[in-house]
C-alpha cells in the first residue's frame, strides 16, 4: 500500500489540477463574452443585460487588470448570500440541495477531529505490523485498525467510537430533518397563490358509455365534494403533437443556421442534400428547403392540433380537478374516493411545469406490470450489466472492425493508431455505458409511470444509488465482477459477508483516497468550469444566434441534476462513515470534498442553474434514508471486521447498534416524513382564511382556468409568431419566457446524457 | 418411516377418538340441562328460553328416543343456514372467519385430486428406493418425490405441478379477496346508523396552558372542520375505577355463593377466615363479611367516580370527535390535521365496545420506544424461548422439590407417584408456557399501544404466526432447538438454507400426518364438545345461580379467538402447500381437517359463540398475506429440494415463481387492501344523502351523546341495583345486557389463557 508520502504527492497533483481548473474558471468568467455561460441565472431573472450588443473589444475581453487581482472573489461572494435570500433567489430545492454538503461538513468535521485525537494514537502505538516480518506495510497502515493486534482490548475504543460516530450522525440527521421539514412547511405556507395548491390530479377515470370524460369528472365531484368542487381540466393525449413541435423546432434551427451563413457570405447560396444525414440525394437550396419543410410541418401540426382538440378519443381518462379552497383540495388528495381503489385515484397535482404529461393515462393493472418488469430489469442491470459489455468488448476489437469495415484497414494498421485503438477500445464500451446509465435509469423510471418530473428524478436517483452501492462501493472492495460477487455471496453464510467485505476495507483506503481526489476534487472543479456549456454556447452563438432572444436560448444554465449528483454524494457519506472507525486518514479528504463542493455548488446555484421545477425539497426523505443505509452498512462492516480480530465479546454491542439505528430511522420517518408527502388541513385552512379576508372578491375560476393546459396548447400564443416567420424570415422571433423554460427542460435531459 | 398401513391404523384410532367426542357431544347437547352450554347464542338473542325453571326430570334429561336416532342432525343443520342469514345472525367477522376453512377446501380439493392423478403415478413408477439396498423404506416413501432418481427429467412434472398449484392458489386467493372486500363494503353500506360511522378517534391532543382538553378539541375542530364538526367526547383515565368495579364483582360472586349455601342448609351459618386465601386469620360470618366488604368498596368506588368526573387531570389527551355526516368523519380520519404528525392524530373510531380504553393516552415517542422494545422481545421470545424453559426444567426435578418441600418426601418417594412425576415433570414447564403463550403475546400487543380489541387480536395473531412458523414448522423439520437452528442458519449460505430444510421435508411427512390427526381432527372434535365451559357452567349453576339473570351470566358462549385459531389454520395451509408437490399423501388429511373444521365452526358460530365486537372482516388482509407467505415458503423449499437432486436446469423456473408470487401479493394489496383500511368518500356520501332524505329531522347529537362514554360510567345505571342489594340481599340482581357483554369479554380472555 502507498505510504503517507505517496498520498501526499497524489494529493498535491490533484489539488494542482483542481487549482488550474479554478484559475481557468476565474479568468474565463471575467470575460464579458462568457458572461452568459457563467451568469445565466441573472440573465434569466432579467437583472443582467447582454454586454455583447454594442460589439467593442472591451465587451468581449476584460482588460481591467484590477479585476484579475481579485479573481478569488467568487468564493466569498458565493458564501455571502444569506439562506432566506437564497431560497427566494433559487428556490427551496436548490437551497436544501446544497445543505446536503453542509450536512456532510457538520457530520464529518467533528468525527475527523475525534478520530485523529482518539483513534490515530490508539492504532499508531501498536507494533503488530512491524512484528509481521514478511508483510510490507506503510505509515498509512500504521494509522489504521490493521495495526491493532488480534484480541486486543483496544478494540473497545473502536466500539466506543463507532457508537459516538453513529449517535453524532443520527443527532445531526435528526436536527437536519427537523430544520428542513420546518423550512418546507414555512416555504409552502409563505408561497404565493399557485394553481397546484387548489388542484388535485385525478387518474384512472372510469369510462362511462353515456358521458364524456369531462362530464363524468364534473358529475362525480359535484356529487362527492359538493361544497368544495370548483372546476376541472381534462388532459389530452398530445404526445404526437409534441413530437411534431419538437421536430419543427429542430428544422427551424437549421433554417436559422443557413440563413446566418447566407447573410455572412451572400455570394454563395447554401445547399444541402435531402437524403439520409445529408450524405446522399438531390442537392437543393437549403433555405428554401427548410422553409418548405417547416411550412409542411406547420400544416401537419395545425391538423393534429385540431384533431386533438375535437376528437373525444384524444381525451385521456385523467383530469386536473380544482377546488374552491386549499382545504377542499387537501381533503380530496388525501382520501379515497370510491370503494374500488383502482379508479378515481387522486393525488396532489404537481405544479404545472413539473407535470410529466406522457404518463397520465396508464391503467392500473398495466402500471403494476410495468413496475414489476422494471424492478426485475433493475436487478439484472445492477448485477449483470457487465455481461453485455464484455460481449461488446470482445466483438469491438481491431479484427472485428476490420472485418465489418474493410476499407478502414489501411488506416487502422498504421502503428500509432493501432496502439491507440487497442489501448482505448476495451474501456470505451464501459465508458459509454456509464455515460448513458443515468438516461437509461430515467427511461426505466418513466416506464414506471410517475406523473411528475420531480418524482421521476427521485426514482432515478434511487436506482442510481443502488447501482453505485453495488458496483462502485462493493465492486471496488471485493474483487471480481458483480456476477462473481453475487455468486460468492449466495454461497457464503450471511454472517460471512460482512466479514469478507469488512476485512478488505482497510486495504482499500488508498484506492478510495485517490478516487475521492480524482472524482471529488477535480470533478467539482470541472463542474464550475462548465466546459460543455462553454463550447456549446460559443458554437450556437456563432451559427444560430441572430437576436437577443436567440442568444438567450443559446444559454444553457443547466440545473442541479438530482438524479445523478445526489447518489454520488451518498458515496462520500458512505465512505466517510465506513472509514471513520477503520482508517481515519481518509476523513480529511472527505471533509475537503464537502467543503469545496459546498462553495462551488452554492456559487452555481446563485449564478448558473435554473431549476426546471420546484418540489419544495420533497427529496429530503430519500437523502435521509440513504445516509441511514450508509450508517448501517458501516456498522455491519465493522462488526465483520472485528469478528475476524478475535474480539468476539464485543459482538453484542455491535449487533445492538444497527437495531437502534434502524429504529431511529423508523422514528424519524414517523416524525417527519408526513411533512413531505401529506398536506395538513390546519395549514390549508389558515391560508384559505387569510386569503378570504384579504381578497374576498377573488375570481379563482379565472385564475385556474388555463393552469393545467398541456404546454403544447399554451404554445398557441408563441407558436404563431414562428408561423409568421415563414413569410417574413428576417423578422426576429418573439418567444416568450415559457419557451425558455421548455428549452431548459429539453437541455436538462442532454445534460443527463453527458453527466 | 411408517408404512401406509401404520398410517391407516393411526388414522383409524384418531378418527375413532374424534367420533367418540362427537357421539358424546351429540348425546350431551340433547339434554335440556346442557342447553345453555351448547346453544348460548340463541339465549343471548332471546329466541330460546330456559327449560329448567319448571324443574321436572324431563326438563333435565331428554327421554325422547326418537331424538337420539337423529343425533347427526346438527351437521346438515349447521350447513343449512344461508350465508346472508349467517352474517345477519352472527356478524361478518364470524361469517368470514369460517370462510377461511372453506377457502382451504377450495384450494386443496382440486390440488389433491390433481396431485393424486399426476404426481403419485410419476413418483410411484420409479425404483430408486428399491435399488438402494441398505435403506429401509415404506410404501409411503414410494409415493413421495424421494422415489424419483437424481437428475431425472421427471422433475419437470413437479415443476409444472407447483406452477399449477401456485397459480390455482393465487387465483382462489384473488377471488376470495375480491368476494370478501365486496362483502365488507356491502356490510358497511347496509349497516344501521352506528356512532362509529360519524366518529373519529383523536389522540395526542397537545396540552394548552389556557384551555382544558375539551375546549381545545372543540376549538381546533370548529376552526379546521367548520362545516362538518358536530361534537366530541373526552376520554377519562378510569383504569383504577375499572379495577374497583372488577373487584366488587368478584366479592359479589362470593356473597351469592355463601347466600346460596346458607339457603340450602339454614342450620349452619357459613363462616370464613379473613386472612390470605382464607387459610389464616379470624373466623367471621361469611355473608356479613362480604356484605360489609362490598359496601366498603362501593363507597370507595363512588369517591373514585366523583374524582374522575371532576378532576381535570383525569381527562386524558384523547377524544372521540363526531361529525355531522359520515363524509366529514371519513375526511377527518384520512387526513393529517397539522404539520406536526405527532399531535392531533386521527383515525376512524372503533365501535364503542371494541375500544381498548387503557391505551388511549400514550405519547408519541413512548409509543415508538414501546414498539421497538416489543419487537426485540418478540425476537428473543421466538428464537430463545427454550432457554428459560430448560432452566426451569433442570430445577423442577424430584430432588429439587424434595429439598424445597421436605414434608412431601414420603409421598413423592412412593414408587407409582415417583415414576408418574418423573414422566410428567419435564414436559410440564413447556406445556404451561405454551398455554400461557397467547396471553403473553396479547400482553405484548397491549404494550404496543393499539386502541381497539380487534387490532390487538390481529397483532397477537401475527406474533403467534411467527412463533408457530419458526418453532412448530421449522422446529419440527430441522432437529435441534431454535437457538441451534439460528446459529446454524447464520453460518450457512443463504442458498443452503432452503436445501437443508427442503431435503428434510419428505422425511417428516409421517410426523405431520399424525400432527394433523391429533391436533386437527381430535382438536376440532374437542372444540365442539366444549369441555371447559361444560364443567364451568355446571359448577356455577350449582353454586352461584339464583335467578334467570344469574344463569344467563353463568353461560360462557365464548367467541372465535382469532389471535389463537387463525395462526393455527395457517399451519395447515402451509403444510398443504409445502407437501402438495413433495408428498401428496398428506393432502387428504388436510382436506379432511378443513371439511370437518368448517362444519364444526359453522355450527359453533350459529349456536354458541357470541362475538365481543364486529370489525367487518378487517382481518382478511392478514389471512391473505399469511397464505402468501406459506406459498412462497413452499416454492423456496421445493427449489432447495430439487437443487440437491441434480435438477439444476429447473432452477430459473423455480426462481421466477416466488418473484411472480410476491408481485401478485403486491398487486392484490394495492387492489383490495384499501377496502379494509380506508373509507371511500363516495360510499359515505351515498349513505349521508339517503339518510338526509329519509330522516331530515334526525337529532344526531342526541344519538351520539353517550356513545363513547367509558363503559364504567354507563355502568352507573346498572351498578345502582347492586348497591340496593346490600340493604336487601335477597332481592334478585338486575343486570342489563351491557353487563352481559362485559362479562363475555372478561371470560374471552380466560379462554385465551386456556386455548
Number of helices of chain A: 34
Strand content of chain A: under 5%
Largest interface: A-B, 47 and 47 residues
Q: How widely separated are the two ends of chain A?
A: 32 Å
Low-confidence stretches of chain A: 716-755
- Provide mean pLDDT of chain A, rounded: 79
Helix content of chain A: 55-70%
Alpha-carbon Rg of chain A, integer: 29 Å
Identify the strand order in the major beta sheet of chain A. 2-5-1-6
The count of strands of chain A amounts to 6
Quaternary state of the chains: homodimer
> Tell me, what's the shape of chain A?
globular
Biggest sheet statistics of chain A: 4 strands, antiparallel
Structural class of chain A: mainly alpha
Family (chains A, B): Belongs to the CSC1 (TC 1.A.17) family.
GO molecular function (chains A, B): calcium-activated cation channel activity
Membrane topology (chains A, B): Multi-pass membrane protein
Pfam family, one (chains A, B): RSN1_TM
Structure at a glance:
2 copies of one chain form a homodimer. By secondary structure, the first copy, chain A, is mainly alpha-helical.
Amino acid at each position: 500500500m502507498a505510504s503517507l508520502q505517496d498520498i501526499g504527492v497524489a494529493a498535491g497533483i490533484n489539488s494542482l489540477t483542481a487549482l488550474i481548473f479554478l484559475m481557468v474558471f476565474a479568468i474565463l468568467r471575467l470575460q464579458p463574452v462568457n458572461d452568459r455561460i457563467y451568469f445565466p441565472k441573472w440573465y434569466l431573472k432579467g437583472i443582467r443585460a447582454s454586454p455583447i450588443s454594442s460589439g467593442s473589444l472591451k465587451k468581449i475581453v476584460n482588460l481591467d487588470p484590477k479585476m484579475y487581482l481579485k479573481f478569488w472573489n467568487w468564493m466569498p461572494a458565493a458564501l455571502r448570500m444569506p439562506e432566506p435570500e437564497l431560497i427566494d433567489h433559487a428556490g427551496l430545492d436548490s437551497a436544501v440541495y446544497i445543505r446536503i454538503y453542509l450536512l456532510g461538513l457538520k457530520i464529518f468535521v467533528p468525527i475527523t477531529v475525534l478520530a485523529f485525537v482518539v483513534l490515530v494514537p490508539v492504532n499508531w502505538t501498536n507494533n503488530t505490523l512491524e512484528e509481521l516480518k514478511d508483510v510490507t506495510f506503510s505509515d498509512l497502515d500504521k494509522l489504521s485498525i490493521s495495526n491493532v493486534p488480534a484480541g486486543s482490548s483496544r478494540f473497545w475504543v473502536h466500539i466506543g467510537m463507532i457508537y459516538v460516530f453513529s449517535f453524532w450522525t443520527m443527532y445531526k440527521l435528526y436536527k437536519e430533518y427537523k430544520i428542513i421539514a420546518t423550512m418546507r412547511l414555512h416555504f409552502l405556507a409563505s408561497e404565493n397563490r399557485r394553481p397546484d395548491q387548489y388542484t388535485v390530479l385525478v387518474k384512472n377515470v372510469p369510462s362511462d358509455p353515456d358521458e364524456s370524460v369531462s362530464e363524468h369528472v364534473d358529475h362525480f365531484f359535484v356529487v362527492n365534494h359538493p361544497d368544495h368542487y370548483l372546476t376541472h381540466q381534462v388532459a389530452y393525449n398530445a404526445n404526437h403533437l409534441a413530437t411534431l413541435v419538437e421536430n419543427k423546432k429542430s428544422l427551424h434551427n437549421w433554417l436559422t443556421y443557413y440563413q446566418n451563413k447566407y447573410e455572412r457570405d451572400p455570394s454563395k447560396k447554401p445547399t444541402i442534400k435531402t437524403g439520409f444525414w445529408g450524405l446522399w440525394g438531390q442537392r437543393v437550396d437549403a433555405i428554401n428547403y427548410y422553409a418548405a419543410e417547416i411550412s409542411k410541418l406547420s400544416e401537419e401540426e395545425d391538423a393534429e392540433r385540431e384533431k386533438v382538440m375535437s376528437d373525444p378519443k384524444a381525451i385521456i381518462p385523467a383530469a386536473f380537478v380544482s377546488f374552491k379552497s386549499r382545504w377542499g383540495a387537501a381533503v380530496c388528495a388525501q382520501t379515497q374516493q370510491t370503494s374500488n381503489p383502482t379508479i378515481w385515484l387522486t393525488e396532489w397535482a404537481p405544479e404545472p411545469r413539473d407535470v410529466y404529461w406522457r404518463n397520465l393515462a396508464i391503467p392500473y393493472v398495466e402500471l403494476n406490470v410495468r413496475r414489476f418488469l422494471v424492478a426485475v430489469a433493475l436487478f439484472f442491470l445492477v448485477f449483470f450489466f457487465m455481461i453485455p459489455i464484455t460481449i461488446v468488448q470482445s466483438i469491438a476489437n481491431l479484427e472485428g472492425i476490420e472485418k465489418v469495415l474493410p476499407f478502414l484497414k489501411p488506416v487502422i494498421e498504421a502503428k500509432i493508431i493501432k496502439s491507440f485503438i487497442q489501448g482505448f477500445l476495451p474501456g470505451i464500451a464501459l465508458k459509454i455505458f456509464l455515460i448513458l446509465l443515468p438516461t437509461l435509469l430515467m427511461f426505466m423510471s418513466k416506464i414506471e409511470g410517475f406523473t411528475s418530473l420531480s418524482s421521476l428524478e427521485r426514482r432515478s436517483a434511487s436506482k442510481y444509488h443502488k447501482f453505485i452501492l453495488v458496483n462502485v462501493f462493493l465492486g471496488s472492495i471485493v474483487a471480481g465482477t458483480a456476477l462473481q460477487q453475487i455468486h460468492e455471496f449466495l454461497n457464503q453464510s450471511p454472517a460471512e459477508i460482512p466479514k469478507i467485505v469488512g476485512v478488505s476495507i482497510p486495504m482499500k483506503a488508498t484506492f478510495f483516497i485517490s478516487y475521492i481526489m480524482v472524482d471529488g476534487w477535480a470533478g467539482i472543479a470541472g463542474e464550475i468550469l462548465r466546459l460543455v456549456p462553454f463550447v456549446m454556447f460559443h458554437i450556437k452563438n456563432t451559427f444560430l444566434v441572430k437576436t437577443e432572444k436567440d442568444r438567450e436560448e443559446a444559454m444553457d444554465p443547466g440545473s442541479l441534476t438530482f438524479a445523478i449528483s445526489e447518489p454520488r454524494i451518498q458515496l462520500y457519506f458512505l465512505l466517510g462513515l465506513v472509514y471513520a472507525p477503520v482508517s481515519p486518514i481518509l476523513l480529511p479528504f472527505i471533509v475537503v470534498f464537502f467543503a469545496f463542493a459546498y462553495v462551488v455548488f452554492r456559487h452555481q446555484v446563485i449564478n448558473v442553474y435554473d431549476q426546471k421545477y420546484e418540489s419544495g425539497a420533497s427529496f429530503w426523505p430519500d437523502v435521509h434514508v440513504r445516509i441511514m443505509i450508509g450508517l448501517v452498512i458501516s456498522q455491519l462492516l465493522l462488526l465483520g471486521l472485528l469478528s475476524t480480530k478475535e474480539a468476539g465479546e464485543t459482538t453484542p454491542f455491535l449487533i445492538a447498534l444497527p437495531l437502534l439505528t434502524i429504529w431511529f430511522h423508523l422514528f424519524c420517518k414517523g416524525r417527519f416524513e408526513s411533512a413531505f408527502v401529506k398536506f395538513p388541513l390546519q395549514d390549508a385552512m389558515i391560508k384559505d382564511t387569510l386569503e378570504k379576508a384579504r381578497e374576498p372578491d377573488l375570481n379563482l375560476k379565472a385564475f385556474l382556468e388555463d393552469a393545467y393546459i398541456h404546454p403544447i396548447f399554451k404554445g398557441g400564443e408563441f407558436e404563431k409568431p414562428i408561423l409568421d416567420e415563414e413569410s417574413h424570415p428576417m423578422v426576429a422571433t418573439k418567444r416568450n419566457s415559457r419557451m425558455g423554460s421548455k428549452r431548459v427542460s429539453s437541455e436538462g435531459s442532454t445534460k443527463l446524457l453527458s453527466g
